[in-house]
Amino acid sequence: MSELPRFDSAAMAWNTVARYETYEEAQAAVDRLADEHFPVERVDIIGSDLRLVERVTGRLTKGRAAAAGAASGAWFGLFIGLLVGLFTRGHVWLGLILGGILIGALWGAVFGFVGHAATRGRRDFSSMRSLVAKNYDVIVGGGQVDRARNLLQNAGLLPANAAGPASTSTAAGPGTATPPADA
Q1: How many CB atoms lie within 10 A of CB 167?
Q2: I need a surface site. Which of 19, 66, 89, 109 has the fewest CB within 10 A?
Q3: If we measure between CA atoms, which residue out of 17, 2, 3 comes closest to residue 164?
Q4: Whole-angstrom distance, CA of residue 16 vs CA of residue 26
């Protein structure tokens, strides 16, 4: 069964210019459009098929948790020392800054150690989380999709799988579901 063209306001207003595999490629395309004086306020980059990626960065021991806590506590202590030091005269401000760093590092180490010990070994690793999309669609509103495609094609930034001008009236808008390509 072929998909009928959509004529609702969302489908008519927003059209896909191209689909990129990385955010950097989509960002480069929008940057090129901006360089060509295209009205980029009508452009959106929409990531789809989101995944949560958690990259394990290392083993987390009580000592490392205490050290990380001490480092963040020292920064907080420096901030407090500088803030209080603004209202002092003479060389007292140096003592306030050093005291703030030392007290912040001490309390940070205590909280880091106790916080890790409270997990009772359920999370003995450190990690970084990020959201990653499978692909990124550059979409344009206001009937400017053909102009955007032409600019990107002339710059060599239009992928081979980009939809042609005949598909502009059937492209889905933001927040609308489209069937998979293999359906």
Answers
A1: 13
A2: 89
A3: 17
A4: 12
Q: Does domain 15-54+129-162 have CATH number 3.40.190.10?
A: no
Which strand ranges, in their side-by-side order, compose the sheet holding 43-59? Answer: 14-20, 125-141, 43-59
State pLDDT tens for residues 7-50. Answer: 555 554 568 889 999 999 999 999 999 999 998 888 899 898 88
Geometric angle at alpha carbon 129, from 16 and 70, rounded to 5°: 145
**Cα Rg of the chain, angstroms:** 26
pLDDT in tens, 81-138: 999 888 888 788 888 899 999 999 999 999 999 998 898 878 888 889 998 899 999 9
Domain range summary for the chain, segments of one domain joined by +: 15-54+129-162, 61-123
Task: Supply φ then ψ for residue 114, to 5 degrees.
Answer: -65, -40
Give the chain's count of helices (H) and strands (E): 5, 3
* CA pair distance 141, 21, nearest whole angstrom: 21
